[in-house]
Amino acid sequence: MRHSTGLPTLIVMCRPCRDVDRPGRKLAELDLGPDGPSQTHHTIGQWSGPDGDDKLHLGCPACGHAPRPIRRQRITQALAAITGKSTVYL
Questions:
Q1: What's the predicted TM-score (pTM) here?
Q2: Into how many domains does the chain fold?
Q3: pLDDT digits (tens, 9 = 90+) for 48-87
Q4: What range does the domain containing 32 cover?
Q5: Cβ(86)–Cβ(9) below 8 Å
Q6: Do residues 8 and 84 make contact, with C-beta atoms less than 8 angstroms apart?
Q7: Of the residues 28, 53, 65, 82, which has the maximum number of CB atoms within 10 A of its CB?
Q8: Is 50 inside any structural domain?
């Protein structure tokens, strides 16, 4: 993990926590560097797949919710489409 680079940043939050009014359950914070998407700060998430980093697997320690893994391509597309910070709930 590393600190934010100031590049566009995608913040992934836990939707079930938000739905029961438990704000601030950050699952991952990602930015798009020269080597592709990478996690910033100390967030939860493990890369896995045929190439070792094809999908990002997330889980919420507060509610136990584990959304479907997010493909690297989807993260890259989302990061390329934003400026500044954007938040998604999964």
A1: 0.77
A2: 1
A3: 887 666 898 888 888 888 888 888 888 888 888 888 888 8
A4: 9-89
A5: yes
A6: yes
A7: 28
A8: yes
